[in-house]
Design a protein that fits this description.
Mean pLDDT: 89
Number of domains: 1
Shape: elongated
Low-confidence stretches: none
Structural class: mainly alpha
Radius of gyration: 18 Å
Number of strands: 0
Strand content: under 5%
Largest sheet: none
Length: 141
């Protein structure tokens, strides 16, 4: 039997999705006219990235179940960690920047973006491996 994805992935995706919708609504209704256009754009970008990566986490959790290789699944789990960390740092720092006006928070935003990029590269790595590639399993033609 194929191992299921880690138990935290789907709940994390649901939390990111729900809070991303809430953040988008908050920005559209409570922040519009209260913050500068640049801050409004930063807020919208943070909400968009959060929602996008919530969906990606759900997709990866479903994709993972289709692989028999523990090696491939391990790359997919690593990508999930990077996506979660990336969203928390990238979107979280932008949300906090807009709400507090502390410009120094913008310095850590690229770390979150880097984690998101690494997550995508880990997905690439998993996609390049043979879906059944594992110890004692001959490669498929």
């Amino acid at each position: 039997m194929v191992d299921a994805p880690p138990r935290w992935v789907r709940p994390a995706a649901a939390i990111l999705g729900a809070s991303g919708v809430a953040a988008g609504a908050f920005g559209a209704h409570a922040l519009r006219g209260q913050v500068t256009p640049d801050y409004m754009h930063a807020w919208e970008t943070a909400a968009d990235y959060q929602l996008l990566h919530a969906v990606v986490l759900l997709a990866v959790s479903g994709w993972q179940s289709g692989f028999t290789s523990s090696r491939v699944r391990s790359w997919l789990v690593r990508s999930c960690y990077c996506f979660l960390a990336g969203v928390l740092i990238f979107s979280g720092s932008l949300f906090t920047l807009v709400l507090t006006g502390i410009g120094a928070l913008g310095a850590i935003t690229p770390l979150g973006g880097t984690a998101l990029i690494v997550g995508w590269l880990l997905l690439l790595r998993a996609g390049l491996l043979n879906r059944d590639d594992g110890p004692g399993v001959p490669p498929r033609p």
